[in-house]
Amino acid sequence: MKDFDNIRNVSDITDVSIGALDRMNSFTFRDLYKNMLKTHPEIRLDVHTRHSREIYTMMESHVLDIGFVSTLLPV
What we know:
Layout: E1 14-20, H1 22-28, H2 30-39, E2 43-49, H3 52-60, E3 66-67
Parallel strand pairs: 1-2, 1-3
C-alpha cells in the first residue's frame, strides 16, 4: 500500500486512485477525502465506488492505488 506522504510524481499533481464500497465512500471516508483535498492540494483523488469483486479486479489490473473491500477474495 502506498503512503500518501511518499507518493511522488514527475508533475506537481499526484493522482491517487481509491476504490471502496458505497457506504465506505459515502460515510466512512467522506470527511477523510475532504480533509485530504484541503491539506494536500498536490494530490488529486480519483474515487471509485464499486463492489468488492470489482475492486479486486481493479487492484490486480493496477487501475486503483488503494482498495477497500468488505469480503475476502476466495482462494
